[in-house]
Amino acid sequence: AQTVTQSQPEMSVQEAETVTLSCTYDTSESDYYLFWYKQPPSRQMILVIRQEAYKQQNATENRFSVNFQKAAKSFSLKISDSQLGDAAMYFCAYRSAVGAGNQFYFGTGTSLTVIP
Amino acid sequence: DAGITQSPRHKVTETGTPVTLRCHQTENHRYMYWYRQDPGHGLRLIHYSYGVKDTDKGEVSDGYSVSRSKTEDFLLTLESATSSQTSVYFCAISGGKVYGYTFGSGTRLTVV
Question: What is the pLDDT of residues A23-35, one digit of tens each?
Answer without folding.
Answer: 999 999 888 999 9
